[in-house]
Give the backbone structure.
Amino acid sequence: MTRQDQPPSSLHIFGIQSRFLRERRGLTQKELAQRITYSDSLIAMVERGERSPQPAYIERVDEALGANGMLAVLAPHMEREDHPHWAQEYVQLEAEALALHVYSTHVLHGLLQTEEYARAVFRSRCPALDEEDVERAVQARMERKLLTRRPPARLTFVLEESVLRRTIGGLTVRDGQLRQLLTCAALPHVVLQVMPDSRETHAGLDGPMTLLETPDHRTIAYVEGQRGSYFVSKPEEVSVITHRYGIIRSQALSPEESTEHIERSLAGES
């Protein structure tokens, strides 16, 4: 099991320097937040190297900490990541995967999302992203091409019924997303299934999961959570997750029943 916990070097350096200057002036993150009109949670993420600071942020912090341009001079060299640093390896593995198997519980997997749905998801982040970060993240998500790649990958998705009912972005965005799901489900290399709310219990209650088959035919599990993600690569642990995913698929509606369920949802039927 490996964790992707190392931030990009320039973000890390900026975070260390800005924290050093803040502490040298005897300021807490909250006190600095009051001076620059940004949240203390954002300051904490920047200082940990988890967020790429915008030029306006850099300018205000440089002035508030009396850095005399030491921080501002780094602005042109800041790395602009399309994905959070802890997701970089996953995105790379996904692009090369021979097969991908996904169980979703709260939102749709990124490969299935419409642009409007993805934008609504990123606008729901807490702490909030600024609009520039939202648009960059949406663009990066839309550029993931595994769904349409040639030769095609084998793709299966199981999603909770509640994901279909959740109106992220409003009814218009939700309906557009349901139509996108029907388009995806019709692709010959895609199998899409719905886990109905009427199922009293099932094998997926521990949460979402993703299984990837690499070009050398290894299977790796990927789990994403509140503050990051991790891979599971030990064969005995991957075997358990793979078996669990197989049971989840057997407990979900069939692909044909799932398509009919999505069509009824789109028509406004219960």
Observations:
- The beta strands are 99-104, 154-160, 190-195, 209-213, 219-225, 228-232.
